[in-house]
Amino acid sequence: MSEVILAAVSVSKYFGGLAAVDRVDMQLHRGEVLGVIGPNGAGKTTFVNVITNLLPITSGRVIYKGKEITAWPAHQIARLGMARTFQVVKPFRRMTVRENVTVGAMYGAGGRGRSAAVAIRKAEEVLDFVGLGDQMDKQADQLTLAGLKRLELAKALAMEPELLFLDEVMAGLNQKEIEAAMSLVREINQRGVTLLVIEHVMKAIVGVCQRVMVLHYGQKLAEGTPQEVLNHPLVIEAYLGQKFANRQTMAAAQARDAESGQSAG
Q1: Residues in CB range of 96: below 8 A, 6 or more apart
Q2: Which of 41, 42, 153, 219 is buried most, with the most CB atoms less than 10 Å from its CB?
Q3: pTM for this model (two decimals)
Q4: pLDDT digits (tens, 9 = 90+) for 60-88
């Protein structure tokens, strides 16, 4: 495996007496795509919020590229090369699409010392990449949901992260939009960005992730390849349900039958 770019060591987050994240260990390797799945309320977003210090950690350690960054201020963590999207999109609605992404370009790993003119050029480059190049002059509140999701992604990419957290960037999209988003995520990863992807769309988890971690009631329930995790009895019971498991079994059988037919031919 490649180097560990991010490690969470027994990370916990309590709200009063409730453990939203409970002693979670995680290693994320440079260049990979790690999926994080689990029921609503499992602690997925809270886990990312603690790592990026949008919420203060209760206990545990966070290590980025060999350096402990536990409880570092969020803006310093961003300067190190980490960026994230938000489950609920948060654009500057009265600013243009270009202006929204320019803000991102002036912060993060690449923003220090960047002039406004250079930041604007960077924003335009990123908007072209995510497919919003023809909508730069629109106000953010004129975009569709799919457009807002891409804008959220563009703001994070403009920060030039080495590590990017994606929090349900495909939620609410139709099948065509999901396919386009999956292609975009793959291309971001191919450009050298390490990804942690929180997602409920199992098609996306299987299609873009090398490994998957499952959270349930704030604890790590399972970890492994997508197929290992999606066939794990505890994951089926706690999250996926038996109907999903039956569909997986049927799809696998059909694939084997098709392969046998090709071999016989």
Answers
A1: 136, 137, 138, 139, 140
A2: 153
A3: 0.88
A4: 999 999 999 998 999 899 999 999 999 88
